[in-house]
Amino acid sequence: MASYNEKYHVAVLLKESVDGLEIQPDGVYVDVTFGGGGHSREILSRLGDHGHLYGFDQDGDSMSNIPSDNRFTFVRSNFRFLRNWMRYYGVGQINGLIADLGVSSHHLDDESRGFSFRFDAPLDMRMNSNATSTAADIVNRYEEQQLADIFHLYGELHNARRMASVIVKARNNAPILTTSQLIEVVSGIMPRERVKKETAKLFQALRIEVNHEMDALGEMLYAATDLITPGGRLAVITYHSLEDRIVKNMMKTGNVEGKTTQDFYGNVASPLTMLGKIITPTEEEQSHNPRSRSAKLRIAEKR
Question: How many C-beta atoms surround the C-beta of residue 296 within 10 A?
């Protein structure tokens, strides 16, 4: 397999996820989270001369990882527009799609992007640097109830209301514009032994809101389900319960809400069949790539 830029991002569950796609040499595949190109290069290594792979990424930084391969087409776009772009390229059906969700190691390690609380940086968190709204806009402009709702829903924080309250009080004195300023504001209401975990959840909630991640995920999954040909595969790696719930619902019931409908015989009417159990990284992978520790891989087949 060709090497890829591990400094940019270490691909998680690489072999397991691509194996799950059961690559057809002449098939058409989509990697909706191109990033460092790890999963894409593994797919390309299994494609024949007539196969093709489309790679999506809304972050311009990932373009430095594009492989020189005429079987690969890079699409700089949010994967929520999957259906539109496939129509643009004249692709009516695909044989499989892979998604490695969450934030990449590149984003966490880039001090200037504001994704990590390890660095003092502007509160940005935009996956697409051309997007207009930043985390600072949310922190300083949203109403207190809006902030509390986001922290509760996307961060699953038990003290969401109190956290929103202290942020609003602090911003009334001066705007909260950097990661360190935000941490200073909220750290006082967190139990000392849970500061890192609570801060990580707060940053997760803001990142999801900035990038509209849950809405985008749902739209992509509906499009993928329609595009994948019968017998084709969908492989999705998740990192937290919110996105995992959406993926599980889609694979089990055919909708992101998890509402079941039954056919005449009482069988769940879903266009997908979930295959096997959840796959998690080995202890060896987790030791080499800490980001993988919360990863879950689900694989489904189109009926």
Answer: 20
pTM of the model: 0.91
Instruction: Please check whether residue 57 is in contact with residue 35, taking contact to mean a CB–CB distance below 8 angstroms.
Output: yes
Residue 63 above 90 pLDDT? yes
pLDDT, residue 255, reads 96
**34, pLDDT greater than 90:** yes
Query: What span, in angstroms and rounded, lies between the C-alpha atoms of 239 and 224?
Result: 20
Print burial letters for 57-83: b (CB count within 10 Å at least 16), e (below 16): bbbebbeebbbeeeebbbbbbbbbbbe
Grouping H, G, I as helix, E, B as strand and the rest as coil, residue 119 is coil
Pairing type for strands 52-56 and 296-302 reads unpaired
- Only one residue has tokens 């500061």, namely 195
End-to-end CA distance of the chain, in Å?
31
What are the C-alpha distances in Å from 213 to residues 79, 92, 125, 154, 176?
10, 25, 12, 10, 23
Structure tokens at 197: 């975990």
For 83, the enclosing helix (H) or strand (E) is helix 82-88
